[in-house]
Amino acid sequence: MRYRQLGDTELQVSEVSFGTWGIGGGWGHSNDDEALKGLHHAMDAGVNFFDTADVYGSGHAEELLAKATKGKEDKIYVATKFCRAGDIHDLSTYSEESVRHYCESSLKRLKRERIDLYQIHCPPLSILKDGQVFEVLEKLKTEGKIRHYGVSVETVEEGLFSIGIPGVMALQVIYNLFRQKPAESLFTQAKAAGVGILVRLPLASGLLTGKFTETSTFAEDDHRNFNADGAQFNVGETFAGLPFNKGVELSRELTWIAEGRGNMARASMRWILDNPNITCVIPGFKNERQVEDNLGTVHVPPFTPEELERIQSFYQDKVKDHIRGPY
Question: In what order do the strands lie in the sheet with 77-82?
């Protein structure tokens, strides 16, 4: 495993880390025993950073992390998120009373005294501009409840605003072969500001595994079913904002990236990590096998300049005009 510095913090995190939305809920059926095996396998392989949120399974993902990291709290870094258990448009959700409640509840579930990275969970730009939430986070940091704080964003505009806030040490963004806009300006500016970049949904909700067909279906409680067209939250969180069938069609045109790189998933994440401004990718998983497959990314050779140009042209000519939702 290789490690990268998270912005201007003291944290050195594994370049392949893991998100826990899948094991918490929202991606169809999951099994706790399989999830814990996956977590332990990741840690044994050198993964030292995991991302979660208080709404993943109503806190269940945080509880699973507490079990898996027991006795390793000083060696395994945990990032969690808050605000989506309330009304994200209501200023009271970001009051000191509310944020303290969210923070203390997460600490209790995680069985920790301090959260390594506490992130606002995709708030509206108006909330970021109001600014009161950052004052609360500074208080929590001073008190030792959190080590650092950051923002999970939906759009480049939100990201650019956030990196201008003193104290923001990390941005979590959607970035993958089907959603390349953040690389145009956000990443370099974040790097200059000393802000780390965590890449979520690196596989575009599974499209970039190359395993789906137009007849693939998803469970009723899987966001790839109930949010396929943005019915519940930002459509960009599902299939990178692409209509499913179009995404499947486009993924077929990218099968060549797997040549010499094991499979499409590993190649897709290698492409992300080829960008030096990125701290880590945080793919999801449900079991040990998926963890092992994702870990193979670290051994994949980088893309050549010619291959990168081919990918860029593909995105510009065939992908970007089909992306829905603000980004």
Answer: 18-19, 49-51, 77-82, 115-121, 146-152, 168-174, 196-200, 280-281
CB contact at 8 A, 1 and 15: yes
* Catalytic residue ranges: 56
Domain with residue 228: its CATH number is: 3.20.20.100
Cβ count within 10 A of residue 310:
15
- Residue 44 in any domain: the answer is yes
Both tokens assigned to 89 = 């448009």
140, with CB counted inside 10 A (0-12, 13-18, 19+), is buried
Residue 210 near residue 256, CB atoms below 8 Å: no
Beta pairing, strands 3-5 & 12-14: antiparallel
Q: Over pLDDT 70: what percentage of the chain?
A: 99
Phi-psi region of 325 (alpha: psi -120 to 50; beta: other; left: phi over 0): left
Closest CA to 282 of 269, 299, 266, 268: 269
Query: Which residue type does 73 have?
Result: E
C-alpha to C-alpha distance for 263 and 144, rounded to whole angstroms: 43
Whether residue 327 lies inside any domain: the answer is no
pLDDT digits (tens, 9 = 90+) for 147-184: 999 999 999 999 999 999 999 999 999 999 999 999 99
Q: DSSP of 86-134, one letter per residue?
A: S-TT-GGGGSHHHHHHHHHHHHHHHT-S-EEEEEEES--HHHHHH-HHH
The range of the structural domain enclosing residue 286 comes to 3-322
